[in-house]
Amino acid sequence: MSDKTYGFETLSVHAGAAPDPATGARALPIYQTTAYVFEDADHAAALFNLQTVGFIYSRLTNPTNAALEARLATLEGGRGCTVASSGHAAQVLALFPLMSPGAEIVASSRLYGGSLQQMKNTYPKFGWTAKVVDADEPENFKRAVTANTKAFFIESLANPGGVVSDIEAIARIAEDAGVPLLVDNTLATPWLCKPIDYGATLIVHSTTKFLSGTGTSMGGAVVDSGKFDWSKGGKFPSLAGPEPAYHGLNFNETFGDMAYTFHSHAVGLRDLGPSQAPFNAWLTMLGIETLGLRMERHCANAAKVAQYLEKHPAVAWVNYAGLPSNKYNKLARKYLPKGAGSVFTFGVKGGYDVGVKVVDGVELFSHLANIGDAKSLIIHPASTTHRQLSDEQRVAAGAGPDVLRLSIGIETVEDIIADLDQALAKAAA
Ligand SMILES: *Cc1c(COP(=O)(O)O)cnc(C)c1O
Q: From the CA of 208, how far away is ligand 1's center (Å)?
């Protein structure tokens, strides 16, 4: 199908998934296979030389995963996509072609706690350094750039702070610095925001969340806009020089705007190995079919819950970018005009102890470490997801002692509000 003429919801259902040519099966088959038979020795050689596109081994490519890759590239307005076993695997995979020992990235302090953890403690083991800056002031990215900077990393809508990044301003600074801007678009999904439209180079996703949508399937993805010139400035030798990890192939000269995506499969997935299970790709494809419907309800419910909490006497503050009172409301109206997502934080009067009582008091909400499920979820970040960070890092990431994070589901909104109401009453008593 021609992607250009269809709306987002149509593409969510159809992109990447034509009827199976071999059997006519209308639903996408799960290609539960490790390997693929070569036509002959020449075909095999051409596949390994990347002279023909096809399937060799499912660590590199798989037809079910390829369908999800095509769908995500289409929905994000990108050129190519690589899916991975989790969001965190996708982040490593996304940086891998850009980085080498001594290389640096500049990242927002408002990133998801797990991403900050990865950057602070694990990337240094690869010789990579992450400089963490306050992204509310885009100029901070400029100040942190050195000759070794290879990428900027932000979230469009940050987990858990309800923080919206000024993607366009940060993309302009990245362009001046000659580095790609990576945007984690997990919380917004392409239904709410398409960062490539604002100058982002690479999009990363935890498809585990809203894209799969029902809390069943770990997965991640990297989408390349295809718009970055990897040869400019000589900063990216793995992509635009002879790549020793692939018998000296120059990916940029050979594959043009698909260089990054080919490298991610042929070198990244091949050598790091975080391939997505085809069954998870299939469940995620199924989830994406209803992405628009779900996001519409997620956002509408979240807005009503945020309004309710803002008026509640036991609540100290609500950080939902969709509220007119919110600091990020102007940015939200620009970058997220259809809604500010369904993950946000609020603070309870009484701090840590009251926060813990609220998570123990809910009945409909599930107390767990996930977001983006059809079910409403709650967590107290300071005692769970952000516990490994220092106090200052927790506060900087929007996860102080009084903070509760909600991921509002698609249930009847009155039921969601009633559950919070009784839990807050019990906690305050
Ligand atoms: C969950 C999450 C990740 C990590 O994804 P996993 O699939 O859990 O590995 C990264 N970024 C954001 C914003 C997330 O919410």
A: 7
Q: Which atom of ligand 1 is nearest to the CA of 90?
A: 9
Q: How far is ligand 1, taken at its centre, from the CA of residue 88, in Å?
A: 6
Contact, 160 vs 314, CB < 8 A? no
DSSP secondary structure of 201-260: SEEEEETTTTTT-SS----EEEEE-S---TTGGG--HHHHS-BGGGTTB-HHHHHGGGHH
372 lines ligand 1 (CB under 6 A): no
For the Cβ of 405 lying below 6 angstroms from any atom of ligand 1, the answer is no
Tell me the two tokens of residue 263: 């490298």
**Does 386 or 254 have the greater pLDDT score?**
254
pLDDT tens-digit readout, 272-290: 999 999 999 999 999 999 9
137-149: per-residue pLDDT in tens?
A: 999 999 999 999 9
CA–centroid distance, residue 35 to ligand 1 (Å):
29
Handedness of CA 81, 219, 157, 181 (dihedral sign): negative
Q: Is the CB of 86 under 6 A from ligand 1?
A: yes
Structure tokens at 140: 């901070």
155 lines ligand 1 (CB under 6 A): yes
Rounded to the nearest angstrom, the distance between the alpha carbon of 80 and the centre of ligand 1 is 20
**Ligand 1 atom showing the smallest separation from residue 208 Cα:** 7
H-run or E-run covering 344: strand 343-348
Single-letter code of the amino acid located at 55: F
Q: In the 8-state DSSP scheme, what is residue 86?
A: S
The gap between the terminal CA atoms of the chain, to the nearest Å, is 59
Helix axes 278-289, 63-76, angle to 10 degrees: 40
Nearest to 186 by CA among 213, 152, 149: 213
Q: Measured from the CA of 187, which atom of ligand 1 is nearest?
A: 13
Two tokens at 26?
Answer: 């209308």
- 205 closest CA partner among 181, 223, 179: 223
Eight-class DSSP state of 7: -
Tell the residue nearest (CA) to atom 4 of ligand 1.
87
Q: What is the pLDDT of residues 27-77, one digit of tens each?
A: 999 999 999 999 999 999 999 999 999 999 999 999 999 999 999 999 999
Task: Confirm or reject: Cβ of 78 under 6 Å from ligand 1.
Answer: no
Domains and CATH numbers, the chain: 8-287 (3.40.640.10), 293-428 (3.90.1150.10)
